[in-house]
Design goal:
mainly alpha
C-alpha cells in the first residue's frame, strides 16, 4: 500500500482490474475455512455480542459525526455518512441514496480505513497474545490443489449473484460463505496456501495505495485532517468499548478489539488471520456490522434528521 501510494503521489499508477477480486476470492476461502463445526457453534453462541458490537459501532459513529462535521465544515448529513464505520462502498451507496456528498464520504471513509490499517495491525501484533483462542480455532486443512481449484470456481459462482444484487465485497463474501458451509459440515476439500493469502494482501494493499494520489489527498486538507482525527477518536472509543465487552462476556479482548475496529472487513479479517486472533470471531463481528449498516444506517439517518440529531 505504501509503495504504491508513493508512486501514485508522483505519477499515474494502476493495478490490474482482476487483481483485487482474485485476491478476495482466495481470502474469502481462507477465512471461511476457519469455521469448523465447533467453531461455527462458538461464533453462533456469541451472536448477541456480535449484534451489540455492531449497534455500538454505528452508535459511536453517530456521536463522532458531530466532531467530524465541525472539523471538516461539512453539513451534518454528510458528516454522518463520513463518520459511521460501515465500509467505503456501503457508506458511499447509502450517502448517494440520501443525497449527501458521495465524494466527501468516499475520501473520509478511505482515510479512516488507512488510519486503521496503519495502526491496529502493528499495535495488536506487538501487544496481543497469539494462538490462544481454542474455541475459535480450527485445525488447518491440508492443501489439495484439485479441491482448491474447485472451491475457487464455486466461490466465483457464489460471488456473481451477490454482485448483481449490489452486495459490498461480493468477491469475498461468496467464497467465504461457501467455505463456511463446507467447513461447518466437515466437507472442506482443501486448505488455502499461505502464499495465496499473502498475494491477496499485496493485491488489496496495492489497490488501496492507488487511491492515495496527490490530488485525492490534497483535494481538501481540512477534510483529510478531520478524517484522520475522527478516525483516531472512533478507534479509541471502540477499543474501550471492546475491552469492556470482553471483560463482561469472557471473549478474547484482542479479537474483540479487532472485530469492533473501524476498518474494512477484508483488511481486519486479514489482520486477524495474520496474527491468529480468532479469525471466525473477528469476521463474525464485521459481517454482522455490514448487515446492520445496510439495515439500520438509512433509518437512523432519517430519524436523526427528523429529531434534529444531525
Amino acid at each position: 500500500m505504501m509503495a504504491t501510494a508513493a508512486l501514485a503521489w508522483h505519477r499515474t499508477v494502476a493495478v490490474p482490474a482482476w487483481a483485487r477480486p482474485a485476491g478476495l476470492v482466495f481470502l474469502g476461502l481462507a477465512l471461511g475455512s476457519t469455521f469448523s463445526g465447533p467453531v461455527l457453534a462458538a461464533v453462533t453462541g456469541a451472536l448477541p455480542v456480535l449484534l451489540l458490537g455492531g449497534v455500538l459501532a454505528i452508535g459511536t459513529g453517530l456521536v463522532v459525526a458531530r466532531l467530524f462535521s465541525r472539523l471538516a465544515g461539512t453539513d451534518p448529513q454528510t458528516g454522518f455518512f463520513c463518520a459511521v464505520p460501515g465500509g467505503v462502498v456501503v457508506m458511499a451507496v447509502l450517502a448517494q441514496e440520501a443525497e449527501a456528498s458521495v465524494a466527501t464520504v468516499t475520501l473520509a471513509q478511505t482515510m479512516r480505513v488507512l488510519v486503521v490499517v496503519l495502526t491496529f495491525p502493528p499495535l495488536l501484533g506487538w501487544l496481543a497474545p497469539h494462538g490462544e483462542y481454542g474455541a475459535f480455532t480450527a485445525a488447518k486443512e491440508a492443501i489439495w490443489w484439485p479441491g482448491l481449484l474447485g472451491m475457487a470456481a464455486g466461490g466465483l459462482a457464489a460471488a456473481l449473484p451477490l454482485r448483481r444484487l449490489g452486495f459490498a465485497n461480493p468477491w469475498m463474501l461468496g467464497p467465504c460463505f461457501l467455505a463456511i458451509a463446507l467447513a461447518g459440515t466437515g466437507n472442506l476439500p482443501s486448505g488455502v496456501p499461505v502464499a495465496l493469502v499473502d498475494a491477496a494482501q499485496v493485491a488489496m494493499g496495492a489497490t488501496l495505495g492507488t487511491r492515495l494520489t496527490k490530488s485525492f489527498l490534497l483535494a481538501s486538507r481540512r477534510l483529510a485532517l478531520a478524517s484522520v482525527i475522527s478516525a483516531a477518536v472512533l478507534s479509541v472509543l471502540l477499543t474501550v468499548l471492546a475491552m469492556v465487552i470482553a471483560l463482561l462476556s469472557g471473549l478474547p479482548a484482542a479479537a474483540l478489539i479487532l472485530g469492533m475496529a473501524p476498518g474494512g472487513m477484508p483488511e481486519m479479517a486479514l489482520t486477524a488471520k495474520a496474527l491468529e486472533l480468532a479469525v471466525p470471531l473477528v469476521l463474525g463481528f464485521h459481517l454482522t456490522r455490514t448487515v446492520l449498516c445496510n439495515l439500520l444506517v438509512g433509518p437512523i439517518h432519517r430519524l436523526g434528521l427528523r429529531f434534529r440529531l444531525l
